[in-house]
Amino acid sequence: MEKQEKTHTHMLDDGRVLEHSHEPGHSHSHTHTHTKAVLNRLSRAIGHLESIRRMVEEGRDCSEVLIQLSAVKAAINNTGKVILQDHIEHCIVDAVESGDHEALEELNKAIDRFMK
User: Domain containing 69 — which CATH number?
Assistant: First the structure.
C-alpha cells in the first residue's frame, strides 16, 4: 500500500511555525531546535582533538593526553545526549503521531549503538 504525502505544521519553542510535507515512505520530520548548539559543540570537540594530536606529536606526557581524551569523550557523549533529546522531542513525537513504527525501531538501534 502506497503512503500519501502528508502536510502538517510544528510550533517551535521560539514561536516560529514550520509547515512541511513528507515524501511517501518517510512519515516523520527532522526539525531540530538545537542544531546550532550541536554544531558548536562538535566544532569545539574537533578543535580539542586537534590540540590532542599536537600533544602526541610533541611527545607530551601520556597521562596528560589521556586526561584530554577523556574530556573529548565526555564532550562527544554530551553532544549525543543533546541530539537524542532533540530527536525524541521532535522526530519521535512526530513519528508516534503519524504511526511510524520504523522510526521507533531506528531510535532503539541508535540508542544501543550510542550506549556501547
Answer: 1.20.58.1000
The predicted-structure confidence for 44-97, as pLDDT tens digits, reads as follows 999 999 999 999 999 999 999 999 999 999 999 999 999 988 888 888 888 888
Question: Could you give the angle at which helices 62-87 and 35-57 cross, rounded to 10 degrees?
Answer: 170
DSSP letter assigned to residue 10: E
Q: Round to whole Å and give the CA distance between 107 and 84.
A: 9
* Res 20: pLDDT: 45
Helix, strand, coil fractions of the chain, as percent rounded to 5: 65, 10, 25
Identify the domain containing residue 88 by its residue range: 35-115
